[in-house]
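Extended Data, panel c. Modelled sequence:
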Amino acid sequence: MLNRFVFKKIDNSALIVFRILFGLLIACECYGAIITGWIKNTLINPKFTFNFIGFDWLQPLPGYGMYFYFFIMGTCGICIALGYRYRFSIISFTLLWTGVYLMQKTSYNNHYYLLILISCFMCFFPANTAYSFDAKNNPSIKANGMYNGIKWLVILQLFIVYTYASIAKIYGDWLDLSIIKILMSNKKEYFIIGNLLQNDLAHHIIAYFGIAFDLLVVPALLYKPTRKIAFVLSIFFHLFNSVVFQIGIFPFLSLAFIVFFFEPETIRNLFFKQKEAFQPTVLKIPSYHKIALSVGLIYISIQLVLPIRHYFFKDDVLWTEEGHRMSWRMMLRSRSGTVQFKVVDKATKIETLIKPEAYLSQKQSRRIATYPDFIWQFAQRLKKDYASNGQDVAVFATNSKVSVNGKPAIAFINPKTDLANEKWSHFKHHEWILPSEGLKKTTSE
């Protein structure tokens, strides 16, 4: 039954359209990073980057290296759109994008992670079998069909993303609009809509439409009677996000996914009027079906478990941030805080106070005050710098206070813990993060 569902052939027009849109969008993302100064501000100007822990060896290239890096990625995007040396281009982009994702997290975005996942899919999808230079140069690969499982893997991934995003919003600070007010407060200067975004009614609409849209959009797109309404609402939702939050290509990438929800005939007639209609064939189960199904089930299981891992950590993820990344918890909190570091020479007992701002960019300074992994990494950096001068030091985070969603700031990191001597674990709570009971008290007062 499962084999029949996954491996039956359907028209591949949606995949071909998506390949073209996907390639053009990632080209815009990569070339745009060069033009807007994102590369300079995020990867070149900082003295060092906060990479994902465990990937210290992934560092920005020196000089103009990162500009060439992103230019190559953008060119891969053009090649993907054209279907030119598709397999080489998509694999190259996936590896390069994953690399730049892991080498810095100061500009972390859940959508960057989603782009990795979709790129990995596209490495295995036969997206170059029509309307591509590859098919033109090698007619033997031409095909009008694809496995049904390709379509449903994409849809299932989107369902996971949207559903977890909706569930995450069902918590106090979203439902009482406090986080919405904070997110909109810095949009006052926006042309025409700035004042509207400060309106209480607008906050209610944003809060509850956001929950409902994320929860229902995938089922509504799958159900033919509601598909067109869901499509129109999707355009409004994603364009709103693009204008208000300015998150690059990702609202448009989200819209590009919608081609997988319409009937293949609709997509073909809309985009490829000259394309030969797909003719159903006798079902042929490929020899690798067991491996493909096993890998697919393992992948989906990971995607289902990873976003809820924070429930297995001590304390609230809104406070500790442990288990936040890669869990589709988007636009849920605003954090501000302060931190200083005290370096103590173990031999001489001489103490030195360190202000992070002297080492970091403005954006990095905002992150380090409020995220425990940034604080730990900076302590490790200080330890390494002093060790290069022959000094063995202890590093303490002092005056560490954090405010979550506008609440009064309370103590965040235990000032008595030598962070230079602590190990980082991805799978357990770090006891040097002070408990959030103080936050709960300030909420109830």
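The CA atoms of residues 129 and 142 lie 5 Å apart. This feature is highlighted in the accompanying rendering.
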